[in-house]
Amino acid sequence: MFEKFFSKSKTLAKAKKSIYPRVVLGRPRHLIVIHPIKDITKVDIKYPLIDPFAHAEIKWVPENKGLIYKVVEPHLSDREEKLLKKI
User: Fold this and answer.
1) Closest Cα partner for 46 from 76, 25, 71?
2) For residue 34, what pLDDT band results from cuts at 50, 70 and 90?
């Protein structure tokens, strides 16, 4: 599968030897429960989506006078940025 993304066999060999966290998508191990909220301006909720790769954040933004939902991903290293550009 990776052969089309890597032009040199050395790069491919390095990529195959790299150790990444194992990701298994399936039934969640636990349920995220959000309790009823009395004061919407105090909302600041964070929870994993695909741990450790993505988390969700819901919070009140006074400038917009509303809630925002955003997906937070970890920052990539310089090496990871270069690999991503190759793909």
Assistant:
1) 71
2) confident
Q: With a threshold of 0.70, does the pTM exceed it? A: no
Q: State phi, psi for 14 to the nearest 5 degrees.
A: -65, -45
- Looking at beta carbons, which pairs linking 63-68 to residues 24 or more positions away fall under 8 Å? 67/40, 67/43
Q: Where does the pLDDT of residue 1 fall: very low under 50, low under 70, confident under 90, or very high at 90 and above?
A: very low
Peptide bond connecting 28 to the previous residue in cis, omega within 30 degrees of 0: no
47 neighbors 54 (Cβ within 8 angstroms): no
Domain ranges of the chain: 2-86
CA distances from 51 to 13, 25, 44, 61, 71 (A): 27, 10, 19, 25, 12
Q: Phi, psi at residue 55, to the nearest 5°?
A: -130, 155
What long-range pairs does 5-14 form, CB within 8 A, spacing at least 24?
5/86, 5/87, 6/86
